[in-house]
Amino acid sequence: MLMKKFFFYLMVVLYVAAGVNHFLNPQVYLRIMPRPFPYPLEAVYLSGVLESLFGLGLLFAATRKWSAWGLILLLIAVFPANISMAIHHESFPVPVYFHYIRIPLQFVLIWWAYLYTRHDPFTVQGPQVSPPSASR
Fold first, then answer.
1. Which are the contacts of 94, defined by CB distance < 8 A and separation ≥ 6?
2. Helix residue spans in the chain (DSSP H)
3. Which tens digit of pLDDT belongs to each residue from 113-126?
4. Is residue 82 part of a domain?
């Protein structure tokens, strides 16, 4: 149970921090935008807002499922930026393997968000037992 809480809150913090970082360091995100993308700065800010909102939305049971789906859609939407970053890896001051690790990591992040579309992160899901039928 402690690990479930840790990973849940880690996810919230990571998405909120990443979203805020879009406003603190937009140039980082502008550099990974696919070259012909229209309105790149606006897209960076919009993705930052959505990342933060969906991250915070995970905290509330009423919005958790929709926030998790929003994160999944956002991760899919920004996937071309990860591909662009891998293609233009020489423009970034990190080892080339980092760019190729990010691509499959995106699928891990999608799976992680998907976990919160199905049930409360703090309950243990046991087998579903149907009540006995009342037969007369």
1. none
2. 2-24, 26-32, 40-57, 61-77, 79-87, 96-114
3. 999 998 676 664 54
4. yes
Place of tokens 């809480």: 5
**Residue 108: inside a domain, yes or no?**
yes
pLDDT digits (tens, 9 = 90+) for 19-57: 999 999 999 899 888 888 899 999 999 999 999 999 999
In a domain, 19, yes or no: yes
Alpha carbon of 28 to those of 53, 85, 87: distances in Å?
20, 11, 16
Contacts of 26 (CB under 8 A, 6+ apart): 41, 44, 45, 48
- As for how many domains the chain has, the answer is 1
Contact of 72 with 114, CB cutoff 8 Å: yes
Instruction: Spell out the residues 6+ positions from residue 74 whose beta carbon is closer than 8 angstroms to its own.
Output: 47, 50, 51, 54
Q: Is the backbone of residue 130 left (phi > 0), alpha (psi -120 to 50) or beta? A: beta
